[in-house]
Amino acid sequence: MDVYLPIANLSVNGLIIVGLGLLTGMLSGIFGVGGGFLTTPLLIFYGIPPTVAAASAASQVTGASVSGMLAHHQRGGVDYRMGVVLVLGGVLGTGLGALLFSLLQALGQIDTVINLLYVSMLGGIGAMMARESIQTLRAGSSGARPARKRRHHPLVARLPGRWRFYRSGLYISPLAPLLLGMFTGILTMLMGIGGGFVLVPAMLYILGMSAQVVVGTSLFQILFVTMATTMMHALTTRAVDIVLAGLLLIGSVSGAQLGARFATTASPVKLRLALAAIVLAVAARMALGLTWRPDEIFTVSLL
Hints:
The protein is mainly alpha-helical. It has one domain. About 70% of the residues lie in helices and about 5% in strands. It has a two-stranded antiparallel sheet. Strand 3 and strand 4 (about 170) form a beta hairpin. The model has no long low-confidence stretch (mean pLDDT about 75). This is Probable membrane transporter protein.
């Protein structure tokens, strides 16, 4: 079933795009990552220009996040107080990211920067998550109890002015989640991701949030930040392909519900290890793509 994408100026198989949406929607429900970290690279591998892939994937992540967040809300797995602070930071970050995106696009370097960001960010975070998960699994199999970790990073404890985030079990400065939200907002604008593959590990290991609310709170933040990102792209870069985004949404909404159900029965440690393996595989493929010459060299630029 061939479908023409007006912004990308390409014809694609609509069923394949729907299948990608289903896959990334399931990842959203399982891991709370929005799925954008996988959607954008897969679209690029399929032949979609990186600028269109990044802009259109952000709108798809919005739909997946709505479905997954509602599923976690029903189980009491969302810290709305923490989520609002993260959203405020994320919206500020999208504004900064829009300026940076336009600058790189004017310089003709946006495609290269998107690929390099994926390789560096996915590789580093994937390696960290894999190491921590393997250490936890080894400690559990040997019967040894892992050393108790701090509730939050020492730098977070030094920030002034503390709030109580009851559902997360934290008493920390709101500046920490605000800055974290800004960082993920910039990444969302540049890479078309929800930022969850950065946000979830940071919420666990930097903020020290309870694992029971991390996924749902992450999806709550991703929902609003990707909405702001889509609007920014539509107004500034004009790279959002509504046909591409619609096909992705068809699959992602149902996939997120399936993923959220599976997440309640699986081991959290094994889920983190699986996510780390997926992240590292995508990073390796992106790095490989930077080293060979494609069959067709093209980009999308604004006139």
